[in-house]
Specification:
By secondary structure, the chain is mainly α. The protein contains 13 helices and four strands. It comes from Terracoccus luteus.
Length: about 350
């Protein structure tokens, strides 16, 4: 008499929470709620920090709490918000992308050079998006196919993109296209004298789409599962290779969108644009509560991280007597504090 054994089928990605952990149906509801609350705590801490910094500014400086000051936080950091969104996808998989700042500069140079050559603005926009997403896809394929460290591959991508900028031109190229200039100077009235630019609208649309993809789609749940444990995600039958490559493609696409927004902000293309911007994006994502090891994080947290950096810069600007380098000192200190907090949360969770 023969006996047969049945092998349990892999758990579908839909059985995972947006953080790659088993859902409450698969485990004890109380423990699942506790795990979720621990993941939300860093985002709450970032929000509290934002409120405290803004409160300090309101007590110290007159007019700091005006609606336009808040709007300016989004206007001056729209490109960084988009850049942080793309970086969130990569860091959630446990990777890193050091090329995004150089891709921003390359995007401004491609846009400015093509507009100067007489190409229509819609064609230029599509070309810039194609360049950024292609570079991200190639880096993702190299990382996945040859099992190389993302740090090394994206560092090479950073040098490549920065070098291509100076192949296009060594001088700053002014953007005089009427469509770009009208988009850059156009404003939207919110009432009470508060206005925002179209760059803010584009950035918020990118944030909304990214949040929906990460928290409401199978692709997003796979991103979290890979960051939680790539080997476990592979054993579950999830398309690990395809999703990892797609994460870097999304990062490259967001970097090119950020480059277009930065070209609207500066109305120029220059090979030295965006120097160090990749570090600001990484800092915003980490301060926003995304673990560098992957698997835990929120898009809204990354946005809050950008706003925290913006408030620090605004405080120093209002002070007037402090050097702008104090912004970097404050960001570095905050980054260290949040990394230590992440380690403590992970130990308590374990």
């Amino acid at each position: 008499m023969s006996t047969s054994t049945s092998t349990p089928s892999p758990a579908p990605a839909s059985a995972l929470t947006p953080h790659g952990a088993p859902s409450a149906r698969a485990g004890h509801p109380a423990s699942s709620r506790l795990a979720r609350s621990r993941r939300v705590l860093p985002v709450i801490a970032t929000f509290v920090l934002f409120v405290l910094l803004f409160g300090v500014g309101s007590l110290r400086y007159e007019g700091f709490t005006s609606g336009q000051v808040v709007a300016n936080l989004f206007i001056d950091n729209a490109f960084l918000i988009v850049l942080a969104v793309g970086m969130t996808f990569v860091i959630l998989t446990g990777g890193i992308d050091l090329s995004v700042g150089a891709v921003v500069a390359l995007s401004t140079m491609v846009a400015a050079a093509c507009l100067r050559a007489g190409l229509p603005a819609p064609v230029v926009i599509l070309l810039v998006l194609l360049v950024g997403s292609t570079l991200g896809t190639v880096m993702g394929l190299i990382i996945q196919r040859f099992e190389l460290q993302p740090f090394i591959v994206t560092l090479a991508g950073m040098f490549l993109a920065r070098g291509l900028c100076f192949v296009i031109g060594v001088e700053s190229i002014s953007i005089k296209d009427p469509f770009f200039r009208s988009l850059a100077t156009g404003t939207i009235e919110l009432g009470g004298g508060v206005v925002i630019t179209w760059s803010v609208v584009i950035a918020l649309v990118v944030v909304a789409v990214a949040a929906w993809v990460l928290h409401r789609t199978r692709f997003g749940r796979t991103i979290y599962a890979i960051g939680g444990s790539e080997s476990s995600a592979t054993l579950m039958g999830l398309p690990v290779a395809r999703v990892k490559v797609a994460a870097y493609a999304i990062s490259g696409l967001c970097a090119s969108v950020a480059g277009l927004l930065f070209s609207l902000y500066m109305l120029s293309g220059y090979g030295l644009h965006g120097v160090g911007m990749e570090l600001d994006a990484i800092a915003s994502v980490v301060i926003g509560g995304t673990l560098l090891s992957g698997g835990v994080g929120w898009v809204v947290g990354s946005v809050l991280g950008v706003l925290v950096l913006g408030v620090i810069q605004t405080l120093i600007s209002f002070e007037g007597t402090l050097s702008s380098w104090w912004t970097k000192i404050a960001i570095g200190s905050l980054l260290l504090v949040f990394i230590v907090m992440q380690r403590l949360f992970m130990r308590r969770g374990a």
